[in-house]
Amino acid sequence: MTESHQHQVQQLADRALKLAAALDAAALVLDDAPDEHTRNADTDLHMARQEAMDTARHLLGVTALWRTGDASTTWPPAASTEQHLRDLRQYALSLTGDLRDLAAALKRATDRNQQAGWWVAEAAATSREISTRLLRTLRLLQRISSVPADACRMDRPACPIHGATICTSGGETWCQTPGCPYWWPYDRWDTPCPEPVTHQVTDATGTIRRVCSGHAVAARQTGTTITRLNPAQP
Prior knowledge:
- The structure is a single chain.
- The protein has 2 domains: 3-146, Ferritin, CATH 1.20.1260; 166-228, no CATH class.
- Helices cover 54% and strands 9% of the residues.
- It contains 7 helices and 6 strands, in the order ααααααβββββαβ.
- The protein has helices at residues 3-31, 36-39, 43-60, 63-66, 81-107, 111-146, 213-220; strands at 166-169, 172-175, 183-184, 199-202, 208-211, 225-228.
- Helix 1 packs antiparallel against helix 3 (43-60) and helix 3 packs antiparallel against helix 6.
- The chain is elongated.
């Protein structure tokens, strides 16, 4: 590998480590969020951080793990957490593109460089997953923030017709009742219930909560007192 190529590998590894440190810091911000759903939205960030570390390892070997503390975590201030994650995603996409370019250049070179090219290509494949995870996190945060303050906001999902019949798998959610049309292309357990409030439920302890029609059906199955609200009632 030429000295120029070695310098490129070092620079790309440094960028991967910088990204890993920034992803770790972004996950800590979500960990401090006041609501549980936002705190739980950090899963992909932690995994993306590990993939950034793995990208650096592909380039430099296991010594990359020891250099995490040397990576700069200074980023331009963003207007919001979501904007910061968008900036990190663009950074990850740029890193992946540069890794692919270097891998292609090495594969066109001598036999020894061709082997190095395969290692760099592996690093590119790993780093590509980072932008995917960041996009998934952004979409999740957008779903959480889009839930109205006056919505049902129960932690668990419910079918608007059948109540506690929800199943989720592979990033999709659906009602298990045969013939029910309700299906969502995302995991409804990750967000507070966004359905409008239609009923008031009172449990055995006297605790009162306003819920949607689906959660009212689910509550009825437990013997809770349910009162339908007047649509004009605040």
